[in-house]
Write a structure and sequence with these properties.
With about 150 residues, the chain is an alpha+beta fold. It is built from 4 helices and 5 strands.
Length: about 150
């Protein structure tokens, strides 16, 4: 995909991206967090992200994804779209409003809600959100980035 242009209109929606939330992805993400200061990968043990029985004992429908996973997905996509305009001065804020479960197909959306002149650049303020395969919104938030 090419980088975002300076002439995009308010309301423009970037192409949506779909990702499959797998149990393997959820477990590896949490295990890596627990392994940060180790020389090797260590298991995080039973928790709501890795153990279906434990998650259900906590009142959840099953294991749930850590909220940082879609944040990483959005950050990667915004970096592809805006490069340094996101990395050096962009923002991303998310709120997780519904659990993401193993085998959910998550669709990421990014839509321009405002464009502002910043010297020779244009700053886009955007709405970001994710839906699951039932069309239920699971993440909402905002982002910004500049295009020179």
């Amino acid at each position: 995909m090419t980088k975002a242009a300076k002439d995009l209109a308010v309301g423009y929606q970037f192409p949506s991206r779909k990702k499959l939330m797998t149990q393997e992805r959820m477990t590896k993400y949490i295990d890596y967090l627990f392994s940060t200061w180790q020389d090797k990968l260590v298991s995080s043990g039973s928790n709501i992200h890795t153990d279906d029985v434990f998650a259900k004992s906590q009142g959840l429908p099953g294991t749930v994804a850590d909220g940082m996973i879609p944040t990483v997905w959005f950050s990667t996509y915004l970096t592809e779209l805006f490069g340094e305009g996101y990395v050096k001065g962009g923002k991303l804020m998310n709120k997780y409003i519904k659990p993401m479960l193993a085998n959910d197909t998550i669709t990421m959306h990014i839509r321009i809600k405002e464009r502002l002149a910043e010297g020779a650049a244009v700053r886009y303020n955007m709405d970001v959100w994710c839906d699951n395969q039932q069309g239920e919104t699971v993440v909402v938030g905002s982002a910004s980035a500049a295009v020179s």
